[in-house]
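W.,

You were right to be curious about this one. When I first looked at the sequence I had no strong expectations either way, so I just let the prediction run and decided to look at it fresh. Below is the sequence, 820 residues in total, followed by the output.
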Amino acid sequence: MAFVGGLGSVGRVREGSLRVSRGVGVFRSGVRVCGGRAVMSASEGAKEVAVDDRTWTVLKFGGTSLGLAERFEQVAAILEKQSTPIMVVVSAVGGVTSALGKLVDAAQTRDNKDHYLEGIEEIRELHEELAHKLLPEDARDTFLTSLASSLRDVRDLLRAAWIARSTSERFRDFVLGQGELWAAQLLWSLLRSRGRNCSWMDTRDVLVARRSYGSSPQKIVDWDLSQKLLDEWRKSNPTEIIIATGFIARDSESVPITFGRNGSDFSASVFGRLLNAKEVQIWTDVDGIYTADPRVVQEAVLLEELSYQEAAELAYFGASVLHPDTMAPTMEANVPISIKNTFKPLARGTVVTNTSLGSSTSSSRKRVMPWGAINDSKGVRGFSTVKDVALVNVEGTGMIGVPGIASRLFTALYEKSISCILIAQASSEYSICAAVPGPQGEEAAAAVRKAFQIELDEGLVSDVDVVSNLSILAMVGENMQRQPGVSSRLFRALANGGISVRAMAQGSSEHNVSVVVDSKHESRALRTAHSAFYLSDQTLSIGIIGSGVVGSALIRQILHQRKSLKERMGVDLRVTGLTTSKKMTLSADIDTDDWLETERVLDADLDAFAAHVNDPSLPNAVIVDCTASEVVTEKYEEWLNKGIHIVTPNKKANSGPYQTYLALRQAMSSANSHFFYEANVGAGLPIITTIRDQLHTGDDFLEIQGIFSGTLSYIFNEFDGSEPFSAVVTKAKNLGYTEPDPRDDLSGMDVARKVVICAREIGIQAELDDVPVASLVPEELQGSDVCASAQLSASAVVWMLMFFYALVLSYAQVSIDEFM
């Protein structure tokens, strides 16, 4: 094994496994050479093994897996448990490649604030610290000598860039590739010090690639030459463990190049194909690929198996665990890729193969409901998003039937090196739009305007505009094409979440359905879509207003039932806020009915309360108003317009001014929010629902009859003169039969509100003043506590009895004729 340094292209000699280059040394398997002096081979004494007799596993470890000395030790422990033969492809130590890139920029721009010499020292200190913690003295001294020599070369090159104030792509590739060399040397030395017989490979000896002849930044591998060089290397270096550099290769002129972003993953995939490996393992800091970003959707599920196509779609649209380019070599060779967590080595992770479990309908996630219905994911495997997108729109009648419009749009973007993420065109050809990276939105629009300048001047194209602050939500599944109704379910879910779709695109393969939404709705759209396909539970953020009889009972019911609802129905109820008129508490999920005793109690603020409950990361927000407060109902329209659903027994909103009643319906319609008020009339009986059902089936109402006040019915059935009337009222209130203020019942106002609500439900534009009311509350008790211990006068009691039996027990009636 050898140290090879400098540009690696001067004075190169091949003699068996010995290769020498002038400059600083870089480890090579076979013989190690430092300053022209040959040292003992790292693989000396290893048995010679026939090249074709191996079933290799390729393991790749990224920068996060190698960021600290403890993580190097962890990687070494993982490798010791692997069945050989294995090839280990490593990235640079976490953050080093980025730091090297900044050094090149600082040298070229002569940045004195972040001088390149200071950056070099920081990199030296980082690797020296790792060496002191990981390696015994002999191995450490050898590594540090190599490191110092390599850094001198980097410093000399950066000095040249500083003087010339310029660099080249070849220059940058050489500097950026040093990090992988140092990391591989450290891991190789560590394994050797632990008694493992292994060899070290500088992949610039083996991998040959060229730059694309087109505009793609991706490097094109010379498979035949790389296969030949790898076979020769393995014959010269028989070993069962190879520690190889990721990210770097060379071109046909032996000049170092890099594979760019996620280059180490790509290197591992390339070796998987060249070795015809049984598996390529990508070891990183996550468990695998999830059905959605777990940082946004906490209920996201780990996908144990995916197809290459599904993984590629998810990767392209933001699932950064696996880059689409990584899979190309393994797809061609049908080599599975496993995503593994360095910090949870026993976890299964995600396996990417030719076919996935999701390709079978029967394997889609399903939930069997108690009533026999089956909800499944319809072949959808996951969702991902692309942030910060701009939409460039071209509209005009002059485009209809004109060939080449899309071509000219693409050409305009291509000439400015702007990538088109998504394109959509109406069948009428009146408009076409393209999604581009957000920071390039205005530049893209300007380029398109220039391309269509003649059509704009002649009025054939009416407008070219750009809409910014957008995101793309992608739904992915290889089997979606076999499932009818997939797109409709997605759009229905987004509509129910109050989310507007700006544009959509779907390929004929139906592996991907993408929609463009406002960035402010990205998290909610992701969670809403995810739960709509039963990839996670339907999550509701619930805010409860009022801690009286109804509010307290509701809190207890939710706490008691939510586990069962989640298991049986897939509904996840989260009480995120509770408030009274004076105090409130806000939380991610309140799990106690003694919430006023907690330390999280704040002064009540309905605006702050609603903002917290309407968490954009949760798909559905519901406020339950358990009060009779008119102050609360004044917020209903605002909340509904924000997409917050409302559930309430409070009658004030629906019996208030008719214009307010209409405004609430308009808010529901515009934001697709829901307003449920079944308990306004008939307590728990489905009166409102029954009225609507009959109207929907074509029935007309002539009259509605009923006992509209259960409170008065109870009070006068209980009152027999043996105890004060006030005591009976107090008892009714304590049993929860009355309104929060019993005077609403005794005054007849509660009955009047119910009459107005019923009238409005059947289409009558009734106002509260249209209902004649005779109050049962004597004038001397109006404005005071009707449940005070003072007894009502005998005349008042008699007056109430007479009115009650004459009005209430003879049934309150909503007659159509009275309002016509």
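Here's what jumped out at me. Residues 137-164 form the longest helix (28 residues). And, maybe more interesting for your project: Confidence is low (pLDDT under 50) at residues 1-54, 357-375, 784-812.

Coffee later to discuss?

I.
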